[in-house]
Amino acid sequence: MKAMELILEKLLSEVEDSNDVESRSKVRLVVPNSSCGAIIGKGGSSIKSFIEDSRAGIKISPQDNIAGLNDRLVTLTGSFEEQMRAIFLILSKLIEDAHYPPTFNSPFPYSGVNVPGFPGFPVGYMVPSVAYSPISYGSNGSGGKYPSNKGVASPVVPQSPGGPLEGQSNSVTIAIADEHIGAVVGRGGRNIMEISQVSGARIKISDRGDFILGTSDRKVTITGSPEAIRAAEALIMQKVSSNSER
């Protein structure tokens, strides 16, 4: 929690320097859908107590907000102290929850935090303990199955370990609408390099004009350990979602 506090304080101070009043007030946690019930509580009792205790605004995205994914966004609003108190209460509840997935050997063990103005850059991300099917992020930012030649979701394909990644190396291809590629790549490739560094995965995007047959979607191939792939998918989803809201 102390590390999260220091990082969040730094990010919020930089957003504050940009004089963006709107963006300074929100923090987002990425939480597995199966654990949201613990945060809400019976009849909303838990989330109500969190709001009263922290004085922060807490809002959980609809269950079907992003089809095909098993995570929901918990948005926190308020002052730095109010947000930190809310984060502490939520994480404490998640640790007690039997449905909360165990921590993988990932570079960031906490629930993901997204500060607007720094879209897609997490303080940490708890990788869900479920196998992700390749996801296609359409023009509206919503996810869907990316079909293989046989019309079913392409599986994670094991590959021989090698390169800088440790342990078993796998590969997944997801489809992303061409209009969102710029947001994923970032100016000078900054975003995609950041995603690769944070997740530990290698990411390759098909060339301009190289679309999936019958679509305007580009192929994004993610290679790495299962947890690195899931983390990279989550970070890419954040970039697409942020770009869709503009």
Short synopsis of the structure:
36% of the residues lie in helices and 21% in strands.
Secondary structure category = alpha+beta
Overall mean pLDDT:
69
CATH architecture of the largest domain: 2-Layer Sandwich
Rough shape?
A: elongated
Q: How many H/I helical runs?
A: 7
Tally of structural domains = 2
- Major sheet size, sense and barrel closure: 6 strands, mixed
How many strands in all? 10
Q: Which CATH class of the largest domain?
A: Alpha Beta
What fraction of the residues are assigned to beta strands by DSSP?
A: 15-25%
CATH superfamily of the largest domain: K Homology domain, type 1
Low-confidence regions: 20-24, 102-166
SSE arrangement, N to C: HEHHEEHEEEEEHHEEH
Distinctive features:
246 residues; 4-stranded antiparallel β-sheet; 6-stranded mixed β-sheet; alpha+beta; elongated; Ribosomal Protein S8, Chain: A, domain 1
Describe the structure.
The chain is α+β, with helices and mostly antiparallel strands. It has 2 domains: 113 residues, 2-Layer Sandwich (Ribosomal Protein S8, Chain: A, domain 1); 110 residues, Ribosomal Protein S8, Chain: A, domain 1. The protein has 7 helices and 10 strands. The strands form 2 sheets. Strands 5, 6, 7, 8, 9 and 10 form a 6-stranded mixed β-sheet that branches. It has a 4-stranded antiparallel β-sheet with strand order 2-3-1-4. α3 runs antiparallel to α4, α5 packs across α7 and α6 packs antiparallel against α7. The two termini are 32 Å apart. About 28% of the residues have low confidence. This is K Homology domain-containing protein. Pfam families: KH_1.
